[in-house]
Write a structure and sequence with these properties.
The protein is of the alpha/beta class. Helices cover about 35% and strands about 25% of the residues. It has a single domain, classed as Rossmann fold (3-Layer(aba) Sandwich). It has helices at about 10-35, 70-80, 120-130, 145-165, 175-180, and strands at about 40-45, 60-65, 85-90, 105-110, 130-140, 180-190, 205-210. It has a 7-stranded mixed β-sheet. It binds S-adenosylmethionine.
Length: about 210
Amino acid sequence: MAKAAVSHPLFARIYPRINAFAEAHGSVEHRQEMLAGIHGRVIEIGPGLGSNFVHYPAEVEQVVAIEPEARLRAVAEQAAAKAAVPVEVRAGRAEELPADDDSFDVAVFSLVLCTITDVPAALAEARRVLKPGGELRFYEHVRSERPRFFRMQRLLNPLWGLLGGGCHLTRDTERAIQEAGFTAKEIRRFDFLINGRASPASPSIIGTARPST
Ligand SMILES: C[S@@+](CC[C@H](N)C(=O)[O-])C[C@H]1O[C@@H](n2cnc3c(N)ncnc32)[C@H](O)[C@@H]1O
C-alpha cells in the first residue's frame, strides 16, 4: 500500500524554476499536443503547479485535479482560478482516487508516472474512473531505448530521485500502460532536447491509450 501523504518540500520549492525552464524550451508545446482535441469531464492526476490548466480546450466541461503534495496543491489552486475551463483541485493520491467509477471521459498524466509510487495501482484507478470509451492522455519522460543512455539513467537514478521528489529516470511507462490493460492508440517517442542537448530525462513519450476490451 502506498503512503497516504506525499511531502516533498525541496522539490516543491525548486519545481517552479525547473518547469519554467522546460516550458521556455518546448514543454508548453508538449502539453498542448497531449491535450489536443479532448472534451468532456477530465481527471488530471498529480497536476503539480497546474501548468496544464491553461491548455485545456474550451470543449472540456470540467477538470478534477488530484494533487497529494500540499504546497504544490496550493499553487495548483491559484492556477485553477485563472483557467478558462472549470478546474477543481482535490487532495488525494493516484493509487486511491477520490472519484466515482465510470465518471470521466479522459484521465491525464503528465510527468507524473515517473514519480507515483505504485504505477500499476494508479493505472488501475484511472481505468476504474474512466467511462466506457474513455481515454488516457500522457506526456512522460521514460527510460531510454539506447543501452548506453539507459545505463547512465540507471546510474543517476538514486540522486535524481532525491532531488526530484521521488522521480525515476528508468521507467518503461509505455509498457506499464499496456500491462495495465490499455491499448495505445497513438504514441510519439522523442528526445526532448534543450538547446540541442540531451538531459537524463530527455527520452519522452506523448500519447493516447484506451482501455482494452
Ligand atoms: C514532476 S511533477 C509533475 C507535475 C505536473 N503533472 C506537470 O506536468 O508539471 C510530479 C507530480 O506528481 C505528484 N505525485 C507524486 N506522487 C503522487 C501520487 N502518489 N499520486 C498523485 N500524484 C503524485 C507530485 O506531487 C507532483 O505534483
